[in-house]
Amino acid sequence: MINILYQIIRTARPRQWLKNFSLFAAALFSGRILMQSVFFNSVDAFLAFCAISSGAYFINDIIDAPKDRQHPVKKNRPIASGKLPVWIAWVSAIVLIAWSLFFSANNIGSYFTFTLVVYIVMQLSYSLYFRNVIIMDSLVVASGFVIRVFAGGFASNTSISSWLALTTIGISLLLAFGKRRSEKTLVSKYSESNDNATRKTLRHYPDNLLDSMISMAATYTIITYSLFTFQASPQYVSSELSSILPSILRSPKWMMLTIPFVIYGVARYLYIIYEKQEGESPERVLLSDRPLLLTVVLWSLAVFAITYLIPGGIQNG
């Protein structure tokens, strides 16, 4: 029984829940995350998305089990390896998805619940069809990140900056195409032919195409985030801080100070993909690569300090 529970937890992929912290983005950048109602609504949204995303992973692994058994790494997944019976996986998936929708409808709101429905339908369509369509497979994966950001806005009743949405799209594309590039590298290490057995689209992705898309997404992310910092910066500073600052620094674009963190983070992720030949699992990369993890932590602290300690107001649009 303990072993079955352990396999269920493995299949739920708690590490992947890191993606769901993007639900807090809208409230964080709007300066409303410290409001009690906004914070707890965002936490509820986080829990609901963790449940429904884990339910989607169960279904995905059930569908992919035959191909996963031919993959050098995925063959060790609980369902593919036979450690978790398929019927238990189906029950777990149904319970998680049903609970998420019920909890959302009763505690968060109809718009957020509709977003959950869109997310699970998208995940099912990916598992059944889009995963075998070149380029579309990466776009659907990237859409999952974008949906999370908008879902956080619905949950916290917060307007989402247009530039924040565009930045999210850039990061999502970078992670999605980077994931494909790393998958090709990983499979090629083990076999010349396993890419056809494990994922049809991998053999149709030219390396040059993936490299071009990754480069485009990286550039797009840095540009859109830089423009976002102009919009999201505090318009004036607190009276305590302004009393010790020179006049030219009392109304600057403070959020621009976080741009170097983003540039380094993007560059470090590219290094991980091309030199360390990792990146198949972005959340594993984040937790295992100390420079990248430190960058994310410092960026988060800087954003929080600029948004909540410096200002008297934030401009959004």
Automatic annotation (TrEMBL):
Membrane topology: Multi-pass membrane protein
InterPro entries: UbiA_prenyltransferase, UbiA_sf
Keywords, ordered alphabetically: Glycosyltransferase, Membrane, Transferase, Transmembrane, Transmembrane helix
Entry GO terms, CC: membrane
A Pfam match: UbiA
Compartmental location: Membrane
Record field: transmembrane: 21-39, 45-63, 84-102, 108-126, 133-154, 160-178, 209-233, 253-271, 292-310
GO molecular function term, any single one: glycosyltransferase activity
Metal-binding as UniProt keyword: no
Annotated signal peptide: none
Enzyme Commission number(s): 2.4.2.45
UniProt name for this protein: Decaprenyl-phosphate phosphoribosyltransferase
Naturally occurring in which organism (per UniProt): candidate division WWE3 bacterium
Lineage: Bacteria, Katanobacteria
